[in-house]
Design a protein that fits this description.
Blueprint lengths: L2 H37 L3 H22 L2 E6 L8 E4 L5 H7 L4 E6 L8 H7 L3 E3 L7 H13 L3 E4 L20 H5 L4 E9 L7 H4 L8 H10 L3 E7 L9 H15 L6
Parallel strand pairs: 1-7, 2-5, 2-6, 3-4, 3-5
Antiparallel strand pairs: 6-7
Helix pairs in contact: 1-2, 1-8, 2-3
Length: 261
């Protein structure tokens, strides 16, 4: 094994230990405080406590990953609906560190190691995209979350990509914004690794048939990387969800920077 490879493994091991420690500590605080608040029927303070712990977790994890986050534009203020392109689970860390938000994710995320239990804990809304009958339930959850003064983050592509382009946006989950005449915010995400490290599309973006644990180990071994979030300067409104989805994709694509190969 080369010296660089050995150093990468040591770096990855130390990062994993730090990641596990932060996750366990904040999860313990969550389980000791949030259920107690809910038991007292203090649902809004419980939601705020959960949101703050989630944001703290995301910020600490970004430090562990040695991920520099660069922000262009102004993040929306809750409550909001935000749509963005999707490059993998690192997107959640980036956006959660910046926003008071709840994510809408595919149902299979709930079964992921580490991230699955964490996502369930912080109130992630899971959707089974194979079952159209699941959409009304998810729309109700979105409405309830917005009513509590929190933001919703949607990944309308429906899957994560290698960052070469932005896929067509699926319109179903934008129905809530259309019904409520709620303006939709948008953002674009991209990543970059140092010249000496593997390209971001292979080591940061999580897509195709990559396994979760294998990818996470490669990510932890990186000497560092950067994330860039560009928030749109305007909000979007349409009376038809398909028109809104199309317009939102074009807005994201107009400021999207492809991930370097």
């Amino acid at each position: 094994m080369s010296l660089d490879g050995a150093l990468g493994r040591i770096r990855g091991t130390l990062k994993f230990m730090a990641f596990a420690g932060i996750t366990c500590a904040l999860s313990l605080i969550h389980f000791l405080t949030v259920p107690f608040l809910r038991l007292l029927r203090l649902h809004l303070p419980a939601a705020r406590c959960s949101s703050r712990l989630f944001r703290s977790w995301a910020r600490w994890v970004s430090v562990v990953l040695q991920m520099g986050i660069h922000v262009d534009g102004s993040p929306p203020q809750a409550p909001f609906v935000l749509v963005t392109n999707h490059l993998g689970y690192v997107d959640v860390v980036v956006l959660a560190s910046l926003l008071d938000c709840v994510f809408v994710a595919n149902a299979d995320v709930a079964r992921w190691p580490v991230f699955g239990p964490l996502c369930r804990t912080v109130g992630t809304i899971f959707i089974d995209r194979e079952r159209k009958r699941d959409i009304p339930r998810v729309l109700q959850r979105i409405q309830r979350t917005l009513g509590h003064g929190r933001g919703i983050v949607l990944f309308p592509e429906g899957t994560s990509t290698d960052g070469a382009t932005v896929l067509r946006f699926k319109p179903s989950l934008l129905e809530t914004a259309v019904r409520a005449r709620l303006p939709v915010s948008y953002a674009s995400l991209t990543y970059e690794t140092p010249p000496s490290a593997p390209p971001a599309r292979q080591s940061v973006c999580w897509w195709g048939d990559m396994t979760f644990m294998g990818h996470m180990l490669r990510l932890l071994c990186l000497p560092g990387f950067s994330a860039r979030v560009t928030f749109g300067r305007e909000t979007l409104e349409e009376v038809d969800r398909k028109d809104l989805a199309s317009r939102a994709r074009e807005a994201v694509l107009s400021q999207f920077q492809p991930v370097a190969r």
